[in-house]
């Protein structure tokens, strides 16, 4: 008689039940993944930093009553906290930071530049109309008989050499001490200041009082500082005295104009240009920011003083970008082909030597090349026994900058061409040789088309880079040589250096006009790139 055992290890099981240990382990859901202590600490730090930035940014928005911006800030902060405090939306946790950085560093600057192009923003047209009126009135302050004089101490909030200047003045009648800057006067607590005999402030809490040497070093800034007051404005008289003067020019709201009490002249507000204009056309230097529509774009195309240099510079800009890209590609590809030959020996040594220009800082090498092209002691003239004034003539300066770009740019083209050549199967070129094709025919029909398919995107990006290659021009020729009748546009200027000179030139910054030129540059590069990429796709379809 056989007895069946049902105990542990007997190999039997109760019907309908799984034996112990036979169940597969439950797969953990993504939201069940444990959070490490390090990950939690990083999350807390980053979210705390986000909250701190939000609080820091909220106060200026509240002061300026920018309720729309405040609402956007609160919504963004709340969204970030919701996203990173929950275990859902895993893809968004990785996409959101990149999107925010894209908006902050790409989209917002582009939109700001585009909006600036439709304004007269620039020197003398930076603030509002009220700011312009205050600036005009305070700049015309003069000392009149009987005006109050104060003992003056000059101080800063921060570094004595670079901090914002503040006037510390003592009222001769009441003995009260006030601090004044461009925003006005504010009385200080007597317990926070130390006043010497004669009313001069020697120390004040929160301020660094300048000694005579420090004040002398910033005497021009001290003279230019005007502190608005209820009855006029406060200006310095030397480094130890200040006076409260009266504004010669005052704003008359009735006629919306500025009147000069001494000369009787009147400047009426012109809302279209953001300036006060006299009957004879004279404009006051201080104006305000207004929208001008398409006026800046129209000036670029129709103003002879701007359109002539603009279109001439545009032609040279294309020649420079095409020449720099084309010559560097040809030279880099030729060297890559030579080193790609199986009969070549010591290729690693040659490659190291050939990429040295690429490994050196470009700005430093541009300065070196500028000295090498010097007419009197430059290496180029001394080595070849020449007397060429490279940067003194139009054609020689343009040749010089392209030669510099050739030296700086060919290592990059050599590297990318080498990589592309190694990706082309040798069987293709060997097949053409078997068919009786010459080396040139094989290169033209097989190697070059395949190289262009691989390198066309890089050539397009190189063209876009060289089209806006500010350093290549500014660090070598600074845009020169310049014609005698136009110091704003030189023979080697690119549109980007021309725009820089418009924005920061000695004649005064015109940011609105410079932004309009930047829009033209962006449009040109975008159109050329779009057309080039379309042709590249057609090539890929042919050779795929």
TrEMBL record:
Question: What PANTHER family does this protein map onto?
Answer: MALTOSE/MALTODEXTRIN TRANSPORT SYSTEM PERMEASE PROTEIN MALF, MALTOSE_MALTODEXTRIN TRANSPORT SYSTEM PERMEASE PROTEIN MALF
Q: What does this protein do?
A: Part of the ABC transporter complex MalEFGK involved in maltose/maltodextrin import. Probably responsible for the translocation of the substrate across the membrane.
Keyword annotations for this protein? Cell membrane, Membrane, Sugar transport, Transmembrane, Transmembrane helix, Transport
Please state the protein's primary subcellular location: membrane
- Which ranges form a coiled coil? none
Per its UniProt entry, which superkingdom is the organism in? Bacteria
In terms of CDD domains, this protein maps to:
TM_PBP2
Give a GO cellular-component term. maltose transport complex
Q: Where is the composition biased (Polar residues)?
A: 1-15
Annotated localization: Cell membrane
| Entry GO MF terms | ABC-type maltose transporter activity
Q: Its membrane topology, per UniProt?
A: Multi-pass membrane protein
What are the boundaries of the region Disordered? 1-29
Which residue spans traverse the membrane?
Answer: 40-61, 67-85, 94-112, 314-337, 349-369, 399-424, 445-465, 511-533
Q: Which Pfam families match?
A: BPD_transp_1, TM_PBP2_N
Under the heading PROSITE patterns, the entry gives:
ABC_TM1
Q: Name one GO biological process term.
A: maltodextrin transmembrane transport
The family this protein is said to belong to: Belongs to the binding-protein-dependent transport system permease family. MalFG subfamily.
- Name listed for the protein in its UniProt record: Maltose/maltodextrin transport system permease protein
């Amino acid at each position: 008689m056989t007895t069946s055992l049902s105990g542990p290890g007997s190999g039997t099981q109760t019907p309908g039940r799984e034996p112990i240990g036979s169940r597969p382990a439950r797969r953990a859901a993504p939201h069940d993944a444990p959070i490490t202590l390090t990950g939690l600490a990083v999350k807390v730090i980053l979210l705390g930093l986000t909250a701190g930035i939000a609080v820091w940014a909220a106060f200026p928005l509240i002061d300026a009553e920018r309720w729309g911006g405040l609402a956007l800030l609160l919504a963004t902060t709340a969204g970030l906290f919701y996203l990173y405090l929950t275990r859902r939306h895993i893809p968004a946790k990785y996409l959101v930071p990149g999107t925010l950085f894209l908006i902050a560093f790409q989209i917002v600057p582009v939109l700001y530049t585009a909006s600036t192009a439709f304004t007269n923003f620039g020197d003398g047209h930076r603030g509002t109309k009220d700011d312009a009126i205050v600036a005009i009135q305070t700049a015309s302050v003069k000392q009149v008989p009987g005006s109050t004089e104060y003992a003056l101490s000059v101080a800063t909030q921060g570094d004595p050499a670079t901090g914002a200047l503040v006037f510390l003045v003592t009222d001769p009648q009441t003995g009260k001490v006030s601090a004044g800057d461009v925003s006005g006067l504010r009385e200080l607590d007597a317990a926070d200041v130390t006043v010497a005999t004669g009313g001069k402030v020697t120390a004040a809490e929160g301020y660094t009082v300048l000694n005579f040497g420090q004040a002398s070093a910033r005497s021009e800034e001290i003279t230019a500082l005007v502190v608005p007051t209820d009855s006029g404005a406060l200006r310095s008289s030397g480094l130890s005295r200040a006076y409260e003067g009266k504004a010669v020019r005052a704003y008359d709201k009735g006629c919306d104009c500025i009147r000069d009490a001494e000369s009787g002249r009147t400047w009426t507000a012109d809302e279209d240009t953001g300036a006060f204009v006299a009957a004879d056309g004279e404009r006051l230097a201080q104006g305000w920011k207004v929208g001008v529509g398409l006026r800046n774009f129209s000036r670029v195309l129709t103003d002879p003083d701007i359109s002539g240099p603009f279109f001439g510079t545009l032609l040279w800009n294309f020649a420079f970008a095409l020449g720099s890209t084309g010559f560097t590609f040809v030279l880099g590809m030729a060297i890559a082909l030579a080193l790609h030959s199986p009969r070549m020996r010591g290729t690693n040594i040659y490659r190291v030597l050939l990429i040295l220009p690429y490994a050196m800082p470009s700005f430093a090498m541009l300065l070196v090349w500028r000295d090498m092209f010097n007419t009197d002691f430059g290496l180029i003239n001394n080595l070849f026994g020449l007397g060429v004034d490279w940067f003194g003539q139009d054609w020689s300066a343009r040749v010089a900058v392209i030669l510099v770009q050739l030296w700086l740019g060919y290592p990059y083209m050599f590297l990318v061409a080498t990589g592309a050549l190694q990706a082309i199967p040798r069987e293709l070129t060997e097949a053409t040789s078997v068919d009786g094709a010459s080396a040139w025919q094989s290169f033209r029909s097989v190697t070059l088309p395949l190289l262009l398919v691989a390198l066309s995107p890089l050539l397009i990006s190189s063209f876009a880079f060289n089209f806006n290659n500010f350093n290549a021009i500014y660090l070598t020729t600074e845009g020169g040589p310049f014609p005698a009748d136009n110091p704003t546009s030189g023979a080697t200027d690119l549109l980007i250096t021309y725009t820089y000179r418009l924005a920061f030139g000695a004649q005064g910054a015109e940011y609105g006009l410079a932004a309009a030129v930047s829009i033209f540059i962006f449009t040109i590069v975008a159109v050329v790139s779009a057309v080039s990429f379309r042709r590249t796709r057609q090539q890929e379809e042919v050779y795929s």
